[in-house]
């Protein structure tokens, strides 16, 4: 199936390379960047040479054994050196690549300890010659400039199977953070009197009980409200606070460390002092609101707020293909974090269409995710905030279009060796623009079609172009087959028929594979709707507590913080979650003693909340204390 998929995508891939396809171009109105000509050949750049993995099937089997209780390899996670020795490139392969580096006049900067990558430096002219390409400068429609190859790279045939990717000649930013602000903060009695933890705020109408940092106020929720809703408090009462755990954040923007401490202080949460370490990768990410520093702030605040005594390491890199790969490669090779989350991504179909037929970039990321799993590092990614139609957020489109947007999944969340975070809307009462009150009475799959329906029914306004398809991401991969842990799960879907991504101005007319048994995402969900969302602090975005923020960007770091609690309560790394949580759901189902809450309402514009698994909320939401018990006993 993968061979056929690659063949189908090749024609579109070549068209995209020739016309200069970028996600930014779509978002800015469909104009391709202007080619400014060949880049300065003497300009110095860094490139990561990705080396091929060995014995992948054996590696995947061993990963499953490390999270199967009763197996002799249970929790016998590998070190980075052990991984490199068993599965990384061999000494002979590394020597051949190093000889190629020297032959081309390039300089080796670093051989990663996992033996999956070598970082090198050189001039653009040297890389043009080494990979038979021509790097050009481009100006995007927003005025920004970047460089990238004007034609596909050619890797040396003598290194076939050893050198799988050269990443770093494209400086174009195109990954997006999955954070969303409320459309219009709804007007209701409880929200009008929202407790925002300031001296002048009026008290909430209904007394807030449970976690002392909670507000019980939609749009102003804190990590304490997460603890209340998903049964974290019994762990806190038992002394579990993340002590001894290290949380990792992989992000594409720098942030202001004081923002995190300000958030925890504002909500009245005592935390471990001096707990945050920043590790810049490839020079580090930018520090600004428009470039996503708020994303990094909320990742740290949410994960570190749920595990207030855990340490935190923030790996941040530029928003480029190389930067995105290198933050994972560095964090996993360091092997200092027990869990790692990322809240950036893009539609899976972009990877397939932008790159050559072997989809080398996705495979390169996959190698590092396998390494993380075998080292016991629990990984989380977001499912996106464009509902079941992941291309819409960046590229537009409506159901009424002659060729509607296709059902697509988000990546890297579509990778089968990551636990992917989906989104829900929790019960609340709302009104918009003076209209009548309406309510969501049970936790539901997050999709803003309920807002579109409200405006159409009560105000006679067609809001569909503004809100389609905002909601929790979810769907079926067209690249990764159904993983072992989903093969016996009721509700797992195949790809739908008649799905085409049509963008004639970019030479794209790509028919997605139908009836493909692909990896379904998300796996686990928590509240993500900004209308029932959160407060956080980001001085690069505004002063004080910012409210009515949401997106699956909040859920991935929240799961990351929960993983830190589980590491402490189970006395060690918990490893890759999915082969553990899916059997729990399959065998024990739902109920007061289950680790999961079934989500049977709402939709993400296509996949409806039903009993069991669905690609809207996945297995459902967590009962964290029950999950801790299951992981400790079974």
Q: What would a concise description of this structure say?
A:
The chain is α+β, with helices and mostly antiparallel strands and 634 residues long.
Structure description:
This protein is of the alpha+beta class. It has 20 helices and 29 strands. The strands form nine sheets. Strands 10, 11, 12, 13, 15, 17, 20 and 25 form an eight-stranded mixed sheet that branches. The longest helix is centred in the last third of the chain and has 19 residues, at 552-570.
Shape: globular
The count of helical stretches stands at 20
- Regions with pLDDT < 50 over 5+ consecutive residues? 1-29, 187-204
Helix-residue proportion: 25-40%
**Could you report the average pLDDT, rounded to the nearest whole number?**
90
Q: Major sheet, described briefly?
A: 8 strands, mixed
Q: Helix/strand-derived class?
A: alpha+beta
N-to-C CA distance: 37 Å
- Strand residue content: 15-25%
What's the arrangement of secondary structure elements?
Blueprint lengths: L1 H18 L3 H5 L6 E5 L5 E8 L4 H11 L13 H8 L3 H13 L3 E5 L5 E7 H7 L4 E5 L5 E5 L13 E5 L8 E2 L2 E2 L7 H4 L30 H7 L3 H5 L8 E6 L5 H10 L9 E5 L12 H14 L4 E6 L4 H14 L4 E4 L1 E4 H7 L5 H15 L3 E5 L9 H4 L14 E2 L7 E7 L2 E3 L7 E3 L3 E2 L3 H11 L4 H4 L7 E7 L18 E4 L4 E4 L6 E4 L2 E4 L6 E4 L7 E6 L1 H19 L7 H11 L7 E2 L23 E2 L1 H10 L1
Parallel strand pairs: 10-12, 10-13, 11-12, 13-15, 15-17, 17-25
Antiparallel strand pairs: 1-5, 2-4, 2-7, 3-4, 5-6, 8-14, 9-27, 14-16, 17-20, 18-19, 21-24, 22-23, 26-27, 28-29
Helix pairs in contact: 3-14, 10-11, 11-18, 12-14, 18-20
